[in-house]
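Can you make up a protein sequence with its backbone structure tokens?

===
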Amino acid sequence: MSTPSIKKTEQQLAAPTLRIHTALPLLTAFFLSGCYEIGPTRLDRDQSDYSRALTSASKQQTLLNVVRLRYADTPGFLDTTQLISGYQLQRNVSVGIGTYSVATRPYGGIAAQLQESPTFTFQPVTGDAYAESFLRPLPPANLLPLVMGGLPIDVLFRLSVQSVNLINNVGPMGGENARGTPVFFDLLSDLRALQLAGLLGIQLERTPQTQGMEAQPDRVYLSIMSSDDPVLSGVVREVRRLLGMAQNDERVEVTYGGGRPRPGQIRLLTRTILGVLGQIAYQIEVPQDDIVSGRTRPTIRLTGHEKRPIVVIHVANEKPDSVFVWTTYNHKYYWIADNDYDSKLAFTMLQILLELSKTSKEPNTIVTIPANG
């Protein structure tokens, strides 16, 4: 009579053990599989996050250097040369059987810990790299092809060109031509109209290099094409006149330098990156107390029909809302408004010029993300 009771007890004891033996491999396989998913699942997120972080940091550094120049402070440039973001996944699985009086019960636990250890490497731009990147005028052969990529020529010239022949842009540090020549802005407006109409062209000719001889720069040409439209034909004639071209010429070579050009050429005196930053800096509307006290010079006002600074930078004592980029200097906030499209476009083109000016032979930023499972 006792045998069925004994068998029933053995079945009750065997059931938890059977469930444990069945569940243990499944739990272990499911838990350990997380190691192989760290890389694929983190790649898309890390790539986007670090890209946004690098871009944001670069924008803030540029704005801060502009403000520093406004107050005759030393600008500083720091490049991020390497990013290493390591992830380590620690896992613990425990399963056992405990006996309490008559009943036998399984017990266990699962624990996991994900550790992140990012490492950043920065390198200051100094010496020859500083001179080449920030003190060397932007070559016309590197500058004008940006127009072929669709960048507005008027914004590009306002940022990076000091003069076209004898027509002067705004000067960054005051002086006789600090406000610029009114006709300079008229020329840029006409060039932009021709660009939008498809009548403006840029041609870049590679100069053959001879072994053993000094490398020669590439040659760049500006084309002003004719039009049957009465309005556009008038703009074409005016641009050719301002550039010193014959009215039957459609192409002219662009060379670096200032002053009066030779026949068939126009002279483009381009700026250095520090010149570009300084031109933006001295158009910032700073508190009048800073000017009266001698901490900075008066704001440069533009001449002619163009009264708006190329980049409008605001200043206040409190942190702003809805900004494109912001920074702090001397306990004040400086920012570019997010709803100011023209300023955002010009500032973005400034960032492009900064990248274009870099001549370092070192490798670009490396992002390394090891995942230890």
Summary: The chain is about 40% helix and 25% strand.
